Amino acid sequence: MRFLPRAALASLFDALRASGRRVVGPTRRDHAIVHDELESAEDLPIGWTDEQAPGRYRLRRRDDERAFGFVVGPHSWKRELFPPREPLYHATRRPDGKVGFSPIIPEPAPSALLGVRACDLAATQVQGRTFESAEFVEPRYAARRAASLVVAVNCTEPGALCFCASTGTGPRVGAGADLVLTERDDGFLVEAGSDEGAAILDALPTAPASDADVTWVDEAMAAATSAMGRQLDVEGLPGLLFGNLDHPRWAEVAARCLACGNCTNVCPTCFCSTTETPSDLDGQDATQVRLWDSCFTVEHGAMHGASVRPTTRDRYRQWLTHKLGAWVPQFGVSGCVGCGRCVAWCPVGIDLTEEVAAIREGAAAPVALPEPASRQPGVPDDLTPRVARVVDVVRETSDVVTLRLRLDGRVAHRPGQFHQLALPAIGEAPISVSGRADGRDLDDHLDHHFVDHTIRAVGGVTRALCALSPGDELGLRGPYGRPWPLDALRGRPVVVIAGGIGLAPLRETLRELLASPADYPDVRLFYGARTPDDALYLDELRAGTRPGFTLRVTVDHAPPTWRGEIGVVTRLLRGDAVPEGAACLMCGPEVMMRFSIEALRAAGIPDERIWITMERHMKCAAGFCGRCQYGPYFVCKDGPVFRLDEVALLFGRDGF
Amino acid sequence: MASDAPAPGATGRPRLAVYKLASCDGCQLTLLDCEDELLHIADRVHVAHFTEMTSLSDTSEPFDVTLVEGSVTTAEQREHVRHIRASTKLLVTIGACATAGGVQALRNWRDASEMLRVVYARPEYIDALATSTPISDHVKVDFELRGCPIDKRQLLELLTALLTGRKPAIRDESVCMECKRAGNVCVMVARDEPCLGPITHAGCGALCPSYDRGCYGCFGPHEAANARALGTWLREAGAPAAEVKRRLRLFTGWSPAFREESERHDEG
Description:
The complex is a heterodimer of chains A (about 650) and B (about 270).
Chain A: E1 2-5, H1 9-18, E2 22-29, E3 32-37, E4 48-53, E5 56-61, H2 78-81, E6 85-93, E7 99-103, E8 111-117, H3 118-131, E9 136-137, H4 139-146, E10 148-153, H5 164-167, E11 179-184, E12 187-192, H6 195-202, E13 207-208, H7 211-225, H8 237-242, H9 249-256, H10 262-266, E14 273-276, E15 285-292, E16 302-303, E17 306-307, H11 312-331, H12 341-344, H13 352-360, E18 379-380, E19 386-397, E20 400-407, E21 418-423, E22 427-440, E23 447-456, H14 460-466, E24 473-480, H15 486-489, E25 494-499, H16 507-515, E26 523-529, H17 538-543, E27 549-555, E28 565-566, E29 583-587, H18 590-602, E30 610-613, E31 629-630, E32 633-634, H19 635-638, E33 641-643, H20 644-647
Parallel strand pairs in A: 2-8, 8-10, 9-18, 10-11, 25-26, 25-29, 26-27, 27-28, 29-30
Antiparallel strand pairs in A: 1-12, 1-13, 2-3, 4-5, 6-7, 6-15, 11-12, 14-15, 16-17, 19-20, 19-24, 20-23, 21-22, 21-24, 22-23, 30-33, 31-32
Chain B: E1 15-20, H1 26-32, H2 35-44, E2 46-50, E3 63-69, H3 75-86, E4 88-94, H4 95-100, H5 112-119, E5 143-145, H6 152-164, H7 175-181, H8 187-191, H9 207-210, H10 227-236, H11 241-248, H12 256-264
Helix pairs in contact in B: 11-12
């Protein structure tokens, strides 16, 4: 530890700039202390502090010249690392149907983040788990983080809304900072946390710190720990919140909540985003742009024109159960770092610590949540599609087509996984792979791989996909998601239950099951569709008959010529339709799955032998955008195939 | 919406019409304000009827898209809007008058006939309905563009989306979402400036708060607007009832969410 006299603070700026870095730090603007690029130490809010209360923030003159005599303002460092609006890729589409995609990856200038508090450093590390430490690595985020040097500041005067001592994220700066300052009247005690920090420290006109200085810092940190303005009892919180999803407090807070999204925007760990595809009028040149979204917007819960979280109660509960609960199984850490921003910047002063305390009052028993998944080091994903070409279009029903796409790369997916299909200026949609083929392309006489995607025209993107013709090009990225567990089915009777378009993600699996009678001697497909004309792949399935394969199809409505069953698919599950010891795969509308699960349980099939596909809107497909969250899971990477016992906690419950 | 969208290139350019009811013309002028893009739009769209732009009017065939500004304030307009609906595939209402009744809906809380007597020398010449109402009260509307006036970028996005066949990126979220993305400091939290941003539909780019003023709600409520919670908070923070009522009753005061809350603070 070294001592930097107050008068020498400018030397820190000189040293940071000498290393070629732009300095971003706190400055006073618009009645608040915000983050901006700083020219010199004089840009710091010297002699100012902030007073905070729920829904209230005020600047006030201090009676000293402290440079960091405040806590945290409306900006968090996520603005630097995860900008509110950011282009992801350029896309072009020419009148001849040719498309092109090129990623936009920034090359950020080296920067120094000055004045990072303990809670905010922890927040950066928490958010880093979303973008850098999960299955996929976001290269834009990673580039900016790698270009950032962290000059942190220990908090000696916590604010009225601070509770980092409760969340274990402060007030003392933890590992990960390059330099750590502790401010007192005569100057700064400085510690280096990295080689680069040490090199900068060497360039500063410091004196060695004394034992008394070291003790002073320890005592200041202990005093700060006991001076927190708020407290949050985090003990067992994830299980407690998910065990109290029907607590009356959710409705009470919803009556006060504006559903405006301010809390999520100021939160330094919230990462949810959406995309837009601005283009020229002809749709020939487009840019895929990512922007901050919030679980309080209707779009965040939108699926097929409805919302999975229609009420503010649903949305507040989603936010709090995610922030303080689901984050733990998702990322191994809580999403709250105790900075208090969501309390201060809520326009109507909703206090998260108060809400949690109220839920603890009269709480029902906690539930167990899944253990955090052990993560392999992630692979980079710049979210940019590659070009695929339509080689065949099969019209399956009045509103469903199968596109056969030629890929230049190898076919890497496994049955049950999906691709993001993209059209410039229109957007992207997640579509399950419904088949594969290897063969020779007549055009260039080369061996290629072909993948089939069966698509129902329900929205703008799927309608445009269904309108493609052979020769047209489109974008494709992936594969994504967890496949069907073929190995777990081996040797057992396999019951496959599908509804409507839900047969598409099961088609490849069915082909594999039917092709291996030794491994899968008894395969039963129970399939429900609206009408006979809406049933998929019937010719193929009927042609695929083999000993041990049972095919039963039912429809909601049928003309008199229909000789099959009429009624819901659960009618097919009666009697001895489901054999003892069976394993079951299921895909279809949620309500169909609910009733089918009841029938399977009644037939003695345990949840551990039932696999279902959950549908939520998968937007980025790589676990970055938060859109497809389902309690402790991301449907895009933890699903879409789930074993029923994994999701039994939430399955069938409204609002998730 | 996209299902009914004109297919560009299939049958020539989509036919566009622009009409107005009770309004100031400001919203339809936004189309002419698209200076850089206007010629491109004219290339891609056949402007079949738009009196602010051309005296030529081609009403021989149905329109693909019709933009209508203004509220319904007379029996004649009520008939007119039914005719417009019948003559277009897509009906897009534009602006606070068309989508919420406009500032002229302030009369909905008053005795209109008494105001006629006060204002006009010969009130018998005036044939007006007692209320000013949004077009969606009278006919089915396919899409709304909010604002007083509408936002040029949103209009361009709507037209581009129609032409390319995508869903328009017109987000039903609070002004706060745009304000926070812009990096603004909240005027309400930092200096007690009353602001309707938390309950107001985005689209303006958080214009007023970016200039250090509170939002006055000209885009009307967003889908989850909790006006009651904001009204309660403003009153508890010391705002008089009349002030809260006045804030809510402006260009979009007749929208159900704002109306209901303003009436809670109506002390006569």
